[in-house]
Amino acid sequence: MRVLAAMSGGVDSSVAAARAVEAGHEVVGVHLALSRDPQAVRASARGCCSIEDASDARRVCDKLGIPFYVWDFSDRFKEDVIDDFVDSYARGETPNPCLRCNEKIKFAALLERARALGFDAVATGHYAIVDDEGYLRRSTDEHKDQSYVLGVLTKTELAHCLFPVGDTPKPQIREEAARHGFSTAKKPDSYDICFIPDGNTQAFLGANIGLRPGMIVDTEGTELKEHDGAFNYTIGQRKGLDIKVPSADGRPRYVTDIDAETGTVTVGPREALRVNTIRADRLKRLHPDMNGELDCLVQVRAHGSVAACRAIIAEDEMVIELHEPLEGVARGQAAVLYLPVSDGGGEIVLGSGTITATSRSA
């Protein structure tokens, strides 16, 4: 096959490209330039899109003897990921930009161009597995599993994806990179949001949204403190509230709701975070069982655990009834459904939806 290897400049994509070459594919490496922010060239940038990352990717391709290109997707990235991130926070949601990048850039825009140029598949360093039946499963390395952020793909996109490192624990991937002589073998994993190099998300949102004063209130509606913008808060937040008036029972307060339209941020006790029902739309189906009603598992955060549930799925929306309450579920997050398996492999990804509402029983 003709395979386009998406090269982030990290160790995982380096080994993924090497394995694609070893499998006998005709491989071309490509690095996506996603930001024109001058800070992104700094060695201290903590994302995956800096000029240093592009140079690391080029050196790996030179060692493998494969062509290497840099494709400028910065305009598309700004529109589909950065602007979406800002708009989502402005609506009082809590988005996951890495998930949106996978959906709109790495497995939509990139795959579209790759297919137009005659490539059969795109290979990435994601930790996930596509089984013999074409279903997406969790990685062998449960600590690095990235199936959650891939749950936003379409079935057609998944059919043209390769995840060569998904069946191997991360320490072995680093050892394999060292055997190849890749400079990325000891490179730290990327973290934080790539388009916010200094990690100060609140300052970034403040600069892009502007001051939108509102009020922090308790669950009874009592006004506690004025704030500069609801985007400074997320569901489940405890630290940084800086409320001078203690709660009546002396217990910590948590953000339990955000109304961006009125600027109202509601705080309450931890038990007020517990929800029993999740509603989601913008469904993506990766398995035929994602239809009608079924018992399955749901994950609502990239590094969160799964919860047993009953999912009622319609055309483009679903209702998830949790068997046990979950805490800190926010609008804008993805709800990814999993099917338990008994064959010893990882759970199968059924599909996903974007959370629009939550509710809790008395």
Automatic annotation (TrEMBL):
Active site: C101 (nucleophile), C194 (cysteine persulfide intermediate)
UniProt-listed Pfam families: tRNA_Me_trans (PF03054), tRNA_Me_trans_C (PF20258), tRNA_Me_trans_M (PF20259)
EC number: 2.8.1.13
The entry's keywords: ATP-binding, Cytoplasm, Disulfide bond, Nucleotide-binding, RNA-binding, Transferase, tRNA processing, tRNA-binding
GO terms for MF: ATP binding; tRNA binding; tRNA-uridine 2-sulfurtransferase activity
GO terms (BP aspect): tRNA wobble position uridine thiolation
Function: Catalyzes the 2-thiolation of uridine at the wobble position (U34) of tRNA, leading to the formation of s(2)U34.
Name of the protein described by the UniProt record: tRNA-specific 2-thiouridylase MnmA
Source organism of the structure: Corynebacterium tapiri
